[in-house]
Amino acid sequence: MIKSWMVIGGVAILVALAANVMTPSDRKWFNRLQRPRWLTFEAAIPVIWTVIFICGAWSAYIVWEKNPGTNTTWMIMGLYLLLEIVTIAYTPVMSKLRSLRVGTIVGGIGLVVSVILTLVVLNISGWAALLLVPYLLWSPIGTYTTWQMAHLNPQDA
Asked: Residue 135, Cβ neighbours under 10 Å: how many?
């Protein structure tokens, strides 16, 4: 029998792989953008997001195990999926459209969805909600960084 954590982890990995839709020209555009001087930790960002996604999947697992298979739980799983899709879409959508403004909007949408998800999950499990805190802390930093980059790269805003 397939365990729920395997399904949740598998879906998370499949969605994350969708970020690989960027072309070399998308990557070139993104890499040439000027960054804020204080962004000295850019190399750590993939590790940070990996930890955040693991925490999110673990949170989803806790919620699923509290009340597996109910309509409410399925709807909450839909919110987790929406959050991951919005988060994963950030770089490819911004790069395809060559718009830091769009990136800022996508980042803001992710923050709003994460706040809603955390509030919903808090009623089910404090631990599951706590595991969403890294997203709540990091998402505004990423969104603010993109907003700053729009000011540094007005031709790409």
From this structure: 26
User: In a structure prediction context, what are the per-residue pLDDT tens digits for the chain, which is 157 residues long?
Assistant: 889 999 999 999 988 888 778 888 999 999 999 999 999 999 999 999 999 999 999 999 999 999 999 999 999 999 999 999 999 999 999 999 999 999 999 999 999 999 999 999 999 999 999 999 999 999 999 999 999 999 999 998 8
Cα 85 from Cα 69, distance rounded (Å): 22
pTM: 0.91
Distances (CA, A) of 1 to 5, 44, 134, 147: 12, 37, 32, 46
What is the phi-psi region of residue 65: left when phi exceeds 0, alpha when psi lies from -120 to 50, beta otherwise? Answer: alpha
- Are the C-beta atoms of 101 and 87 separated by less than 8 Å? no
CA atoms of 155 and 140, how far apart (whole Å)? 23
- Dist CA 4 CA 28 (whole Å): 39
CA dist 100 and 17 (Å) reads 22
Give residue for tokens 């809603």.
116
Q: Are 91 and 30 in contact (CB under 8 A)?
A: yes
AA identity, residue 120: V
Say how far apart CA 1 and CA 98 lie, in whole Å: 45
